[in-house]
Amino acid sequence: MNKKQYSRRKFISVLSASSAALSIPAVVSAGGSVKNSASKLAIRGGAPVRTQPWPQWPAMIVDDNMVANITATTKSGAWSRISNPVNGTVATFEKKYAALTGAKYCVGTGSGTQALGVCVDALNIQPGDEVITSSYTDFGTISAILASRALPIFADLDYRSYQIDAAAIAQKITPNTKAIMPVHIMGSACNMDAIMAVANKHNIPVIEDACQANFAKYKGRQLGTIGQLGCFSFQGSKQIAAGEGGAVIGNDDALMDKVYTIQNHGTNKKGQNTTIGQKLRMNEFEGSILLSQLDKAVERFEKRNENANYLSSKIKKIPGLTPQLQYEGTNSSGYYLYAFTYDKKFYNNLDRQVFLKALNAEGIPAAGYIKGMQHDLWATNILELSSYKKSYSKQQLQLFKDSLVLPSCDRVTESVVVISACAILLGTKADMDDIINALEKVYNNRNSLS
Q1: Angle 284-315/429-444 helices, nearest 10 degrees?
Q2: Which of 136, 237, 243, 387 is packed most tightly, with the most Cβ within 10 A?
């Protein structure tokens, strides 16, 4: 089997560029506007389902308002947030974003990774401490923990949702556990009721990695407001994009004051140098770009959910394809990615890469997603660092090593298929039908791929 996985950066570039019986199957229709579902596959010389290019994100959202805002910021000469700390673009964005998410406070940062790292420091997590998190994530989640020389401990996934499993979290808790960091992967909610029950039982704070989950809600609450702190990313591929940028949201006055101070190199709002911190500030250009998107961001979010719900209603009828599980109580998803599970048993045991090549040939930019971070070199390298050897007991380091064995995570990485959602899910119903028709066509012609 070809188990090649992409890094997140490679994955983004790839998407931008681009029964198991042997008897002849009956034609499957998921109920979309079916066209050519039984015709020859494009990879075998047939006509592709789609020949039109898909829109590109974030170039598609550049408008006169955005250009005017950037120009105004340039001419103002106030390029750092400290040049206009009350009414600048960053300060204004923080107020508006907090209001949109229902949080009391928002603090902008230079990236989602920085937002997570600030939260780790704000909770006084230090060498010797453990943070339970998911390995199925961007490395930024892990590096935010490592930056404080804390120890990430992995809990395995719920295979159906690709999310960290609350029951697995409970098994990893020790007296050294200082935080739980669930990752709302693809932009959809973890089982937050179950996770918060575990956290509250042990009095452990929760940092929500909602970097992919802008505006997503669980039981009426914005993801990121359920735990003590929530983090978001505005990197160029995200639903609200500024090239780079991030934010922390929260409701605790003292904790959010500390978040502000830490991202401002340890200097509080009174200008007093009070603690350890790096300069992790969002700049005024990023604030300007983000502000220009907010008036349409919720509308885009709602359109993505509408199209994703339509896709799921059709895809679940195609044998061997199962949309990402949404937990009970999930009101909406950020849909950074639209994801489903590919079961090769329904495709004559064809490797997922063959399925993807056939789908790509039909004009659908689908791909596998990231591998679990437990397989990368960092996991070995940190054990050679003197800081980790000195700060952690043999029992803690063994717990870390044991947490690298994640069978459900490995199963997910070998079977998940994703479609970049920021731009594609803003399309028309006819665009969604192209995806459905291509999936039907590949299934109905699966015997020609063997």
Answers
A1: 50
A2: 136
* Nearest in space to 300 (alpha carbons), one of 266, 267, 332, 278: 332
Kind and range of the H or E run holding 58: none
Integer Cα distance of 298 and 126 in angstroms? 38
Q: What is the pTM of this model?
A: 0.92
Pair 14, 4: CB distance under 8 Å: no
SS3 131: strand
Which residue ranges of the chain lie beneath pLDDT 50?
1-4, 17-26, 33-34
| Rounded to 5°, angle at Cα 78 from 75 and 81 | 145
> Is-cis flag, bond preceding 58, omega within 30?
yes
- Residue 423: per-residue pLDDT: 97
Please identify which residue in the block is written with the tokens 């830490």. 262
DSSP state of 157: E
**DSSP state letters, 197-240:** HHHHHHT--BEEE-TT-TT-EETTEETTSSSSEEEEE--TTSSS
Distance from C-alpha of 186 to C-alpha of 352, rounded to nearest angstrom:
19
137-149 pLDDT, tens digit each: 999 999 999 999 9
> d(Cα 262, Cα 273) in Å, to the nearest integer?
10
Token code pair at residue 141: 């989640």
Q: Which helix (H) or strand (E) holds 158?
A: strand 157-158
β-bridge mates for residue 37, sequence order:
none
CA dihedral 157, 163, 169, 170 (to 10 degrees): -100
